[in-house]
C-alpha cells in the first residue's frame, strides 16, 4: 500500500513539475467546449439541448490527449524495466499510475465542467448529476485508456493509433454519462444511469490493470 | 543461494541469438559475459531478469525451476537506460527507487549510496543537468541503496571515468563478500577476483563454422 502511494506521489509530482499535462488537458477541454457556441450559434435552447453531450465528448477527448505519455516516458528512460522487476506486481503499479493520471487530468476536468455548463446554458437540475457522473466516469476513462497506452507504448507517434483503439471503448461511458444528466434535467431518476457507471468503474478497476500489465510485458520483450 | 540457466535458446525477430547456453552461479560468485556485439549478452541478462522469455530452456532459483515471478524481487538490473527523471533531483530520483523497493530507512540508504558513488555534492541537482557518467553512477547508486542477492549488470562501466570504475569494482566485491551474486556483461576488464567467464560466440560465426 505504501509503495502504491509512492508511485502515485511520484507521478503526480512529475506531472506538476513538468506542468504541461494538467494545464494542457484543461485548456483543451475549455477551448473545445468554447468552440461549440461559436460554431452552432448562441441560441440558448440549442446549446441547452446539446450541453451534456458536448461536455462529455470534450471530456473524453481531453482525457485521451494525455494518455500517450502514461507509460511512454517511463518506457523511454528505462524506468519501466525497473518498475516491472520490483517486488510490487506490475498490475498494482499500473493501477497506481492510472490513479496519478486521474488525479492530474480527470479531477481538474470535474472541477472545470460546471463552469463550462454555465457557458452552454446547462439547466440547473443537471449540475450535481454532471459532477457525480464525471466523478464516476473519468477514473474509468483513465483505466480503459491505460490498456491502449500500454499497447502502443513502443510505437512512435502512437497517439493516433491510441485514439482509434480507445475511443470505441469510451462509448458506453459517453452514453450513460449523457443519459444521467438528461434524465436529471427531464425530471426522471438519474440513479440507474449512475449505478451502471459505477458498475463500469468497478469493472475497469478489476480488469484494466491486468490487461494493461499484460500489454506492457509484451512490449518490454 | 544458486541461480542457473539450462539449455537456454533465444530467438529474436526470427534470428537465433544464442542456443543451448547454460550457466550457474552461487553465493559470492561473479559471472562475466563476454562476446562481440550482437552475441546476445544483453539478451541473456534480460532473459535472466525475466523481461524476456526463453524460446527453449529454463531458469532455476535455488535449484528449483523458476518462473521469473518467483525471484523478481531478488534482482537488481542495470540496463543501457538509466531511468533518471529530468524533473527530479538526484536525491529525489534515488529516494523514489529506495521507497519503491520498500526500504524502511530511505534517507539513510540514499545518503550512504550517494556517498559511495561520489554523488553527495550534486544531490540537489536536477536530473536534466547530469552528464552521462553521473546518470550512470546514479543508476548504480540505486542498486547500492537496497540489498538484493542477484545483480544483473549490462555494461555498467559505460561512460564511467577510471575512479568511478574503481568504485563499481569495489561495490561488486563488497556485494560478493556479503553473499551476493553478479552477472555482468562487459567489454573492458573489470578486476573481479575469481570470476567465471562465459563466452558468447556470435551466432553467425557459429553457423559459418
How is this structure best described in words?
The complex is a heterodimer of chains A (221) and B (209). Chain A has helices at residues 2-18, 20-40, 44-65, 69-76, 79-85, 90-119, 127-151, 159-185, 191-220. In chain A, helix 2 packs antiparallel against helix 3, helix 2 runs parallel beside helix 6 (90-119) and helix 3 packs antiparallel against helix 8. Chain A has one domain (2-220). Chain A contains nine helices and no strands. Helices cover 85% and strands 0% of the residues of chain A. Chain A is an all-alpha fold. The model of chain A has no long low-confidence stretch (mean pLDDT 92). Chain B has a single domain, classed as P-loop containing nucleotide triphosphate hydrolases (Rossmann fold, 3-Layer(aba) Sandwich). Chain B is built from seven helices and nine strands, in the order βββαββαβαααβαββα. In chain B, a hairpin with a 2-residue loop joins strand 1 and strand 2 (15-26). In chain B, helix 4 (106-116) packs across helix 5 (132-145). In chain B, 40% of the residues are buried. Chains A and B meet through helix 1 and helix 5 of A and helix 3 of B.
Question: How much beta of chain B, percentage-wise?
Answer: 25-35%
User: Radius of gyration of chain B over alpha carbons?
Assistant: 17 Å
Q: How far is it from the N-terminal to the C-terminal residue of chain B, by CA?
A: 37 Å
What proportion strand of chain A? Answer: under 5%
Sheet/helix structural class of chain A = mainly alpha
Give the CATH level 1 class of chain B.
Alpha Beta
For the biggest sheet of chain B, the summary is: 5 strands, parallel
Number of strands of chain A: 0
Q: Considering DSSP H and I runs of 4 or more, what fraction of the residues of chain A is helical?
A: over 70%
Amino acid at each position: 500500500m505504501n509503495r502504491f502511494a509512492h508511485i502515485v506521489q511520484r507521478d503526480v509530482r512529475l506531472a506538476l513539475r513538468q506542468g504541461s499535462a494538467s494545464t494542457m488537458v484543461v485548456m483543451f477541454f475549455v477551448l473545445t467546449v468554447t468552440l461549440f457556441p461559436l460554431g452552432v450559434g448562441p441560441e440558448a435552447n440549442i446549446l441547452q439541448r446539446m450541453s451534456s453531450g458536448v461536455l462529455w465528448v470534450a471530456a473524453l477527448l481531453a482525457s485521451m490527449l494525455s494518455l500517450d505519455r502514461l507509460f511512454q516516458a517511463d518506457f523511454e528512460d528505462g524506468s519501466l524495466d525497473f518498475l516491472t522487476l520490483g517486488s510490487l506486481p506490475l498490475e498494482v503499479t499500473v493501477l497506481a499510475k492510472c490513479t496519478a493520471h486521474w488525479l492530474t487530468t480527470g479531477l481538474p476536468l470535474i472541477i472545470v465542467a460546471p463552469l463550462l455548463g454555465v457557458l452552454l446554458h446547462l439547466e440547473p437540475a443537471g449540475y450535481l448529476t454532471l459532477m457525480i457522473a464525471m466523478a464516476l466516469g473519468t477514473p474509468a476513462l483513465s483505466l480503459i485508456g491505460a490498456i491502449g497506452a500500454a499497447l502502443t507504448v513502443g510505437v512512435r507517434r502512437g497517439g493516433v493509433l491510441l485514439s482509434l483503439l480507445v475511443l470505441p471503448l469510451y462509448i458506453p461511458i459517453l452514453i450513460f454519462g449523457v443519459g444521467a444528466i438528461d434524465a436529471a434535467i427531464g425530471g426522471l431518476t438519474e440513479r440507474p444511469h449512475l449505478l451502471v457507471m459505477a458498475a463500469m468503474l468497478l469493472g475497469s478497476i478489476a480488469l484494466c490493470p491486468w490487461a494493461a500489465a499484460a500489454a506492457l510485458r509484451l512490449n518490454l520483450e | 543461494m544458486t541461480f542457473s540457466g539450462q539449455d537456454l535458446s533465444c530467438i529474436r525477430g526470427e534470428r537465433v541469438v544464442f542456443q543451448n547456453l547454460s550457466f550457474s552461479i552461487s553465493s559470492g560468485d561473479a559471472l562475466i559475459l563476454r562476446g562481440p556485439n550482437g552475441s546476445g549478452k544483453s539478451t541473456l541478462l534480460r532473459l535472466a531478469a525475466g523481461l524476456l522469455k526463453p524460446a527453449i530452456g529454463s531458469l532455476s532459483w535455488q535449484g528449483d525451476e523458476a518462473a521469473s515471478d518467483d525471484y523478481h524481487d531478488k534482482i537488481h538490473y542495470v540496463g543501457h537506460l538509466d531511468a533518471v527523471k529530468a524533473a527530479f533531483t538526484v536525491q529525489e530520483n534515488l529516494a523514489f527507487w529506495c521507497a519503491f523497493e520498500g526500504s524502511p530507512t530511505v534517507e539513510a540508504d540514499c545518503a550512504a549510496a550517494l556517498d559511495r558513488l561520489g554523488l553527495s555534492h550534486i544531490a540537489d541537482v536536477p536530473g536534466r543537468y547530469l552528464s552521462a557518467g553521473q546518470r550512470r553512477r546514479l543508476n548504480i547508486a540505486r542498486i547500492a541503496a537496497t540489498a538484493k542477492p542477484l545483480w544483473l549488470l549490462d555494461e555498467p562501466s559505460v561512460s564511467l571515468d577510471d575512479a568511478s570504475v574503481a568504485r563499481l569494482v569495489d561495490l561488486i566485491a563488497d556485494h560478493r563478500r556479503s553473499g551476493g551474486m553478479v552477472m555482468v556483461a562487459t567489454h573492458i576488464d573489470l578486476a573481479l577476483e575469481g570470476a567465471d567467464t562465459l563466452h558468447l560466440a556470435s551466432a553467425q560465426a557459429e553457423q559459418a563454422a
